Amino acid sequence: MRISTLFYTLWQGIKNIFRNKLFSMASVATIAACLFLFGIFYSILANFQNIVKTAQEGVCVVVFFDEDITDKRIEEIGEIIKKRAEVSSVNFVSADEAWESFKQEYLGDYSDGFTENPLANDANYEIYLSDVSMQSALVTYLESLPGIREVKRSELTALTLSNANKLIGYVSLGIIAILLAVSVFLISNTVTIGISVRKEEISIMKYIGATDFFVRAPFVIEGILIGLIGAAIPMGIIYFLYNRALNFITKQFSVLSTLLNFMSVEQIFKLLLPISLGIGVGIGFFGSFLTVRKHLRV
Amino acid sequence: MAFSGRKKKYMADDEVIVLENVSKKYQAGVQALNDVSIRIKKGEFVFIVGDSGSGKSTLIKLLLKELMPTEGNIYVLNYNLNRLKHRKVPKFRRNIGVVFQDFRLLRDRNVYENVAFAQRIVQVPGKLIRRNVPSILATVGLAGKYKAKPDRLSGGEQQRVAIARALVNRPAILLADEPTGNLDPKNSQEIMKLLEEINEAGTTIIMVTHNKEIVNAMKKRVITLNRGVVISDQERGVYIDED
Questions:
Q1: Which structural domain range is residue B125 located in?
Q2: Helix axes A212-252, A21-57, angle to 10 degrees
Q3: Which terminus of chain B has fewer CB atoms gathered within 10 Å of its CB, N or C?
Q4: Is A290 a residue whose pLDDT tops 90?
Q5: Looking at this predicted complex, what is its ipTM?
Q6: Is residue B188, in this structure, part of any structural domain at all?
């Protein structure tokens, strides 16, 4: 293809948008609205997942050893556990450390009456998981290891967090699917109207000997540009609104802000920006491509 | 146009259009053409005449491969239209210029852009477009009106723009479907004079018309269709009134 043809096709695509101003604006506005909603959902979900992840990192399995276990065997068990894929870190808590921690947390000054360590047999490993859903498998494995007396786990927390994570995934997928379908439909409508408005021109092009590509390309470019503009607008808005929203939440609900760790706008946009632009271009391309294939049998 | 060395020869060297026993029946059951055989030579000026429903428009559509015949073979410029693949149709159509009764100009573009449009869509380089378009506008007598939008032109002038657009890609054949149908007698005469000049320069012209005066004045070949059948094919013929 000639460079001049490429520019001509691009220029025609841009002109199509202005020829068909009202519908182009409606399409851009709807895609922008869809992707704005998508952006907001994404920001909320990404933050929620971040919070869930932080919470998951705090979920641990604790293993206690047989009373007559040697220090060498404890070390061996520690090495075995560290090698497991689902384990993110392992922390050894000696009997003295366990007692100190217990005293500080629950007894305070009342601990003076104890002359011996009541938790002498409670040296343990705190095992932190990279994937909470693997907790059951890990516990079963640990229970089978010689030298381990007891394994304590927080089954409910693990399950709740794991399920919440899955639910977030499904909900976001569902929302994205619906928004995509609506946007494709809108682009398709705009291009269909564009084609009917330019029916005469297309018929002349066909008589003169324009190739299928030459007739179709401007409409596909129109769709892609509408998708791109429709994606860029909400990204700009979200970029400016995100920090303001965080400031608002932090000020209004100061209790929450100490508990929850929000992501920065840069962290959010690292994925949100390419995904949104990709979705915009993608729905623009597919919406217009499928429509010209259907309506432009040249 | 030289056919040699390109592909199988379907027609004599001096022929540009051959229809062999062509019939066309639409899905609704209407028999538009019935066993039509026509041979047209390079450089001829041929009138296709007949009443409404006689099959003239179907014939034009078949020649442009807008339609496929139900039976028979159609060869145009040594292209076998029955076997011509969809992707090769654009290249084939670049050999044929088409002019319509209603001009079919792009209303949002001026005269120059309407003609340049025909060159752009067949991907002629910009430098050549800037040379060819003024030249063809001078040929049709519109050199001074290249900036005008179609709405500012008379019917005759609009048809000249349409002819310039049809000719700018130097087609071997010009199909004119009722080109004077929307024009007054004076403009009609001027358009016919222009078409005659184009024909004398070597372009084969096939013109569909209802205009008895024009056909009788031109003294060219006249093919008369009636209910899809060729009822007359005369050299230097006249319009046959079927009433």
A1: 105-170
A2: 50
A3: C
A4: no
A5: 0.83
A6: no
